[in-house]
Design a protein that fits this description.
Structural class: mainly alpha
Strand content: under 5%
Largest sheet: none
Helix content: over 70%
Distance between the termini: 47 Å
Order of helices and strands: HH
Amino acid sequence: MHKLIIQKIMEYINEFHKEWIERTRQSIASWSKQPVSPEDVKKQQEMLNKQRAIRESKLKS
């Protein structure tokens, strides 16, 4: 009984990862078709910098 439960959990996890990998591949394919402007790159970097600053300030607290 215990082995069956573990097997079902592992099947669920494997299926979840397969779906996640496929969604990631589709996203990458979609992103590669869309050219990114320098302005978009700058905005994205600014957002990432803000997120990092927030994360680092929380770690120091």
